[in-house]
Amino acid sequence: MGESGSVRADLRGLPAAFENDGYVIVRGAIDTDLAREAQAHVHWLLQRNPGVRPEQLHHHLAVQDPFWIRLVSDSRLVDIAEQFVGPDVALFATHYICKPPKEGQPVLWHQDGSYWPLDPMEVVTLWLAVSDSTPENGCMRVIPGTHRKPLEDHRQRADVASVLGSSLDPAHVDESKAIDVVLRAGDVSIHHPNLFHGSDANRSDRWRMGLTIRYIPTTTRITKAGAGSPFLLRGKAVPGVNAYLPKPEYVEGTHFAFKGADRWR
Questions:
Q1: Which ranges in 49-105 belong to alpha helices (H)?
Q2: Are 137 and 99 in contact (CB under 8 A)?
Q3: 201, 104 contact by CB (below 8 A)
Q4: Which helix (H) or strand (E) holds 33?
Q5: What are 26's strand-pairing partners?
Q6: Measured between alpha carbons, how far is 77 from 68 in angstroms, rounded to an integer?
């Protein structure tokens, strides 16, 4: 079922739960057909970008990719983001973190906001499960309540191959309080930029595919030129704050073919 015919997830109570724990889950945020289309998109991207690890499909690939921008601008996802950032919604950055079977890398404990050039740090991450995400294939883990902690400096880590190559000081992380964020394809978890989170390696025989989407209000400034993939998704831009990119046009034979691509010509 396409976007226009899909039942919207129940968004009541999201901000209150988010404020308490620093994260919250929305089940069935998008339909399974779109999740399967995103899985096919990942494999298409990997074929087009040989040598790039599937955990490192970054935002610079999105700027000329109509399906990618169609996905992050899906009204069901932007409806969720609006609950946290208000009616004027922009994309800051987006990143597929896809762990291949048996060898998918871990994401060490970190706080997203420590990496981002945003002022103020008003941003929310939607982590879209493109495939099922379980403890066996390296689902995200969070430590509830740590969003109340300040942002910390992160250490470079050469002792283990990981997605980010850095982490929080392990002495500051109480893993006994960690919770596995188990998601089905099409579910979304939402988390705060200060929340302690990470994920284990994928030692299973199944892919773990996820898409991070970083939404900001249009009052938040991206302070580093070239950072992210800024697109205005809903509402009004604030003059002089950010310059937004034009949405890419679909070209048959050049771009990933998807349902509704004709509307992106």
A1: 66-72, 75-85
A2: yes
A3: yes
A4: helix 32-48
A5: 188
A6: 13
* Confidence at 2, pLDDT banded by 50, 70, 90: very low
Q: What is the rounded distance in angstroms from the CA atom of residue 247 to the CA atom of residue 176?
A: 44
Question: End-to-end alpha-carbon separation of the chain, Å?
Answer: 22
Beta strand 107-110 with 188-191 is unpaired
pLDDT digits (tens, 9 = 90+) for 201-250: 999 999 999 999 999 999 999 999 989 999 999 999 999 999 999 999 99
CA distance 128 to 114: 21
Distances in Å between the Cα of 18 and the Cα atoms of 25, 91, 253, 264 are: 9, 20, 42, 34
Q: Which of 230, 260, 259 is nearest to 247 (CA)?
A: 230
Q: Which of 111, 112, 82, 69 has the alpha carbon at shortest distance from 229?
A: 69
Q: Which of 179, 101, 194, 118 is nearest to 144 (CA)?
A: 179
The token pair at 116 is 């981002």
Between CA 249 and CA 246 the distance in angstroms is 9
